[in-house]
Write a structure and sequence with these properties.
This protein has helices at 2-22, 34-55, 60-85, 87-92, 100-118, 123-132, 148-167, 169-193, 199-218. It is mainly alpha-helical. Helix 1 (2-22) packs across helix 5 and helix 2 runs antiparallel to helix 3.
Length: 241
C-alpha cells in the first residue's frame, strides 16, 4: 500500500536527519573533533558565568559579550566536524560550495539518496512518491487568528502571563541572566536538534529530497556504463562510513 511506502520514506528521511550527529558525539572521535568538543564544553562555562552574574550584576555585560564568540565557535566547529567525519559525502555532493546555511541539509540529502539506492528505489518510484506526498496529511487549516474568540483568549492569557513573569522575583532581579541561559538553550536546540519541524514542513522536505533523488538516480554515473542496468534501477554506489 502507498501509505506503507510513504511511512518507509518518512523513516528514511528521519534517519538521514539524525545521521550527521551520530558520529560527532562518539567518544572515539573526541580527539579528532576536539575543537567542537571544546566549544560545546564552553557552554557549561558560559552558563556558570551567567549564574555567577546573577550574584554580581556588574558581570552581566561581559556575559552578553561572550554570547557571540561562543555561538560562532559552536556553529563553525560543528560544521568543520561534519566535514571531517563525512568527507566523502562532502566531496561527492560538492557541499563546500553550498552556503553555510544549506550545507547540513545537503549532507542529509546525501544520506537520504544513499539509503534510496541501497534499498533499490528507482527514479520513477521517487517521482511517484513525490506526487503522492501531496495527498498525505490533513488539509490545511485556517489560521487560528481568524477565530476572534480564540485569538482574544490567547492575547488575554499572554498579557496575564507577561505580568506574572515581570512580577516574579527571579526576573526582576536576575532577568538578564535568565535571558542569557534561555538564549544558550535555544541555540543548542536549534543547532543539534534541528529546531522545530511541523508535519507540513517535514513533508515539504521529503518531497524536495524525492525530487532531487529522482534526478540523481536517473542521471547517476552508472547510467553512462554500457553494462549498467537501466537508469534508476537501484545500483549501489560506494558508501560513506
Amino acid at each position: 500500500m502507498k501509505l506503507a511506502e510513504w511511512a518507509e520514506i518518512q523513516e528514511i528521511y528521519k534517519r538521514s536527519r539524525r545521521q550527521p550527529n551520530k558520529r560527532l558525539f562518539k567518544w572515539a572521535n573526541a580527539r579528532r573533533l576536539w575543537p567542537m568538543w571544546a566549544a560545546f564544553a564552553s557552554t557549561l562555562l558560559l552558563v556558570a558565568f551567567a549564574l555567577w552574574a546573577m550574584i554580581h550584576p556588574a558581570l552581566l555585560p561581559y556575559a552578553y559579550m561572550a554570547l557571540l564568540p561562543w555561538g560562532l565557535a559552536l556553529y563553525f566547529t560543528r560544521l568543520k566536524g561534519l566535514r571531517t567525519m563525512h568527507a566523502q559525502a562532502f566531496d561527492d555532493h560538492v557541499i563546500d560550495r553550498q552556503s553555510f546555511h544549506h550545507r547540513e541539509s545537503t549532507l542529509c540529502y546525501a544520506f537520504f539518496l544513499e539509503s534510496l539506492r541501497k534499498q533499490g528505489y528507482t527514479a520513477a518510484k521517487a517521482r511517484e512518491l513525490s506526487a503522492y506526498s501531496d495527498l498525505v496529511g490533513k488539509p490545511a487549516r485556517p489560521p487560528l487568528s481568524q477565530n476572534l474568540g480564540f485569538a482574544s483568549l490567547v492575547a488575554f492569557m499572554i498579557a496575564i502571563s507577561t505580568e506574572l513573569i515581570k512580577s516574579a522575583e527571579v526576573f526582576t532581579s536576575q532577568g538578564l541572566a535568565v535571558v542569557i541561559i534561555g538564549v544558550v538553550a535555544l541555540f543548542i536546540y536549534w543547532l543539534v536538534l534541528d529546531g522545530i519541524y511541523s508535519g507540513a514542513y517535514q513533508k515539504a522536505w521529503i518531497k524536495r529530497y524525492l525530487d532531487m533523488a529522482a534526478w540523481d538516480l536517473e542521471h547517476s554515473p552508472e547510467c553512462d556504463d554500457d553494462v549498467a542496468q537501466p537508469c534508476g534501477s537501484g545500483l549501489v554506489p560506494r558508501t560513506w562510513a
